Predict the structure.
Amino acid sequence: MTASVRRLQWPCFNRQAAVVWYRNYLSWAKHYKSSVAMNFGEPLTNLAALGFGLGAYVAKMQGVPFVDFIAPGLLMVTAMNAVTFDMGWEAYDRLNDSRIYHGLIAAPLTPAELVGGELLWEMSRALLYGGGFFVVLLALGLVHSWWAIWLPVPLVAVGILFAAPALWVAAVARTQEQLFYYYTLVITPLFLFSGVFFPLGHLPGWVATVIRLLPLYHAVAVARGLMLGHVGWALVVHMAWVAAYAVVLTALPTGVVARRLLG
């Protein structure tokens, strides 16, 4: 198999990939309390400080209270952050320090199956932490439509959408410091400029166009439409963007992981 073909290889979601998922579950179960605390602490803080704190001084956004406007975005951000941190730092460790991936490949397991298992696990994490935060939003009265029962779909999509590039970054990184570059230069701008906190109507045209090309922007639009009951063809288009990004980005990590493990 040539390097160019390996770069285009998609992950494999089969029984062997499920074994990788189960291995990750057993590892997570040993320290789940700290993991839950970390992944719920930040979104709850953002909701309290920005939604209820700043929201008391901000006029309505697109006809809804500020906290109702940002809650769907924070839901998607919760899923994004959960998978980005876990996939990036854990994959780096498994490739460079603990070398768990090398042991899994000797199991035997193909790189495509390994990547498939990792992505399955991160989809589960996105659903777990995003779903947990959704329950909080529901209890606070910030969910206004039964269409919200479809939120697991964009949550799972966000899981694979951000886990795949995080795994790619971990595979090409040569130091842990480079993971912080990715989070600072990519994930943080996505958090700030993907329509989570403000609509795009008053931005310069070219800026709004760039933001509309960001994957998180479309995920936030889907979540907002479902939670507020604004369902129409525009929401379908946003979900199509999310699905397209997920399919394309899923092809990123398998080839570089294969080259790291097989030479």
Q: What stands out?
A: The chain is about 75% helix and 0% strand. The mean pLDDT is 89.
